[in-house]
C-alpha cells in the first residue's frame, strides 16, 4: 500500500505527552548540546514524565554505553536508567547476533559502547583480521581512534568477511563544533575495499526495531532535530515525529524537505511535547493559515503575511512549500518569508 504524502504539519487537540505513550528522544541537539542541557529540556522532560509519558533516549552514537549516557543525563537533572537508553551499538549487535552463530568471533572497530553491546550478545571480540573473524563490526571510536584499526577492517573485508556498521552519520557534534562521525570512518573502509556494510542505526529499520523491542512502546513519538536520521527513521518505522528547532535543522532545510523528511509536528523546543499543536488550515486560493500567519506560494517564491509566534509562521510556510512540492523537493525561494520569522 502506498503511503500518502504529507503536505502540512498536523495539529493535535491533546498535549503530545498525553497523545503518545512513549517519547523516543534523540540526544544531541534535542536534550543537550556540547554536553550541556538545552534550555527548557530538563523541565519539559520532568513534566512529561510526571504526566505518565515514558521517556526513552535513542542515539546513533555507539561510543558511549547506556550506563554512561544514563549517568550523564542524571547529572544534567534528568533521572535516567540504563534501560531507558537505546544505542546504535545495541542495534548492530542484535543484527550481527541474528546472522552469526553463538559465540562467533567478531573484529571490533569501535569504542567501549560497541564492545559492551557485542559482548552482551555473547559474541567473541577479536582485534585482528588474522584472528579469523566471522564478521567486522564498525562503530564510532572517538576523535583519537587509531588509524590502523581501519586497516584491520579492510584486510578482513577484502577476504570476504561480512561488514556491519552501527550507523553512517557523517558528522557528530562536539563541544568545539562539528567533527567527523562514524559515517566518515565507514567511507574510509568503503574506499579501501569497495564493499558496502549492513547498517543498523537511524534512519534504518534495525534501529527502530531495537527501540520498540526495548521500550515496548505502543504509541511512540519520535522527537529529533535531524531530518535525515530522526525524521526519516520515524517515516521508515511508520510512526509520528516531532521536529524541534534546537539542533541542526533550519527553516530553509525544513521547507525543502522531501516526503520522508517531513515531520508530523514542528515546535521550537521540548516544551512542544507538553502542549497541543495548532492546525494548519487551507484558506481561499492556495494559502495556508496558522496562528495569525498566512503563507502562499506564488511567482517562484513563498510569501508570508500576518503576525504571531514565529513557529506558527514556519508551520504555515511548510504547508505552502510541501503542497507545492508534492512528492518532490520545494524549489521556491523562501528566504524573505523566513527572514520575517527570525528563527
Total number of helical segments? 12
Give the amount of beta strand, in percent.
15-25%
* Radius of gyration from CA coordinates: 21 Å
Please provide the count of β strands. 19
Largest sheet: 6 strands, parallel
Structural class: alpha/beta
CA(first)-CA(last) distance = 37 Å
Strands side by side in the biggest sheet: 5-4-1-13-14-15
State the helical fraction.
Answer: 25-40%
Features of this protein?
343 residues; alpha/beta; six-stranded parallel sheet; five-stranded parallel sheet; 19 strands; 34% helix; 21% strand; globular
Fold topology:
Elements: H1 16-19, E1 22-25, E2 32-33, E3 36-37, H2 41-50, E4 54-59, H3 66-75, E5 85-87, H4 88-99, E6 105-109, H5 112-120, E7 124-126, E8 135-138, H6 148-158, E9 163-165, E10 171-174, E11 177-180, H7 182-193, E12 198-199, H8 205-215, E13 220-224, H9 227-237, E14 240-244, H10 251-255, E15 265-267, E16 281-282, E17 288-290, E18 293-298, E19 301-306, H11 310-325, H12 335-339
Parallel strand pairs: 1-4, 1-13, 4-5, 6-7, 6-8, 8-9, 9-12, 13-14, 14-15
Antiparallel strand pairs: 2-3, 10-11, 16-17, 17-18, 18-19
Amino acid at each position: 500500500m502506498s503511503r500518502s504524502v504529507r503536505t502540512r504539519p498536523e495539529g493535535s487537540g491533546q498535549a503530545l505527552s498525553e497523545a503518545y505513550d512513549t517519547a523516543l528522544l534523540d540526544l544531541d541537539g534535542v536534550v543537550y548540546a556540547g554536553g550541556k542541557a538545552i534550555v527548557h529540556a530538563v523541565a519539559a522532560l520532568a513534566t512529561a514524565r510526571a504526566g505518565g509519558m515514558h521517556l526513552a533516549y535513542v542515539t546513533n552514537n555507539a561510543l558511549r554505553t547506556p550506563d554512561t549516557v544514563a549517568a550523564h543525563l542524571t547529572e544534567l537533572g534528568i533521572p535516567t536508567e540504563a534501560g531507558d537508553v537505546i544505542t546504535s551499538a545495541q542495534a548492530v549487535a542484535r543484527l550481527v547476533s541474528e546472522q552469526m552463530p553463538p559465540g562467533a568471533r567478531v573484529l571490533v572497530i569501535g569504542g567501549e559502547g560497541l564492545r559492551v553491546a557485542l559482548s552482551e550478545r555473547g559474541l567473541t571480540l577479536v582485534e585482528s583480521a588474522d584472528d579469523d573473524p566471522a564478521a567486522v563490526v564498525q562503530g564510532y571510536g572517538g576523535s583519537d581512534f587509531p588509524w590502523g584499526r581501519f586497516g584491520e577492517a579492510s584486510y578482513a573485508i577484502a577476504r570476504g568477511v561480512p561488514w556491519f556498521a552501527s550507523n553512517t552519520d557523517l558528522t557528530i557534534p562536539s563541544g568545539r563544533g562539528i567533527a567527523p562521525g562514524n559515517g566518515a570512518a565507514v567511507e574510509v573502509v568503503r574506499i579501501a575495499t569497495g564493499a558496502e556494510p549492513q547498517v543498523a542505526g537511524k534512519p534504518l529499520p534495525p534501529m527502530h526495531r531495537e527501540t520498540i523491542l526495548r521500550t515496548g512502546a505502543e504509541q511512540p513519538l519520535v522527537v529529533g532535530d535531524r531530518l535525515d536520521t530522526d525524521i526519516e527513521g520515524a517515516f521508515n518505522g511508520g510512526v509520528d515525529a516531532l521536529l524541534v528547532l534546537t539542533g541542526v535543522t533550519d527553516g530553509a532545510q525544513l521547507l525543502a524537505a522531501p516526503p520522508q523528511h517531513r515531520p508530523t509536528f514542528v515546535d521550537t523546543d521540548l516544551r512542544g511535547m507538553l502542549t497541543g499543536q495548532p492546525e494548519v488550515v487551507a484558506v481561499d486560493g492556495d494559502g495556508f493559515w496558522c496562528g495569525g500567519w498566512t503563507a502562499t506560494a506564488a511567482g517562484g517564491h513563498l510569501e508570508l503575511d500576518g503576525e504571531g509566534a514565529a513557529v506558527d509562521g514556519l508551520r504555515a510556510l511548510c504547508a505552502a512549500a510541501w503542497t507545492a512540492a508534492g512528492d518532490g523537493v520545494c524549489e521556491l525561494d523562501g528566504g524573505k518569508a523566513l527572514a520575517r520569522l527570525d528563527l
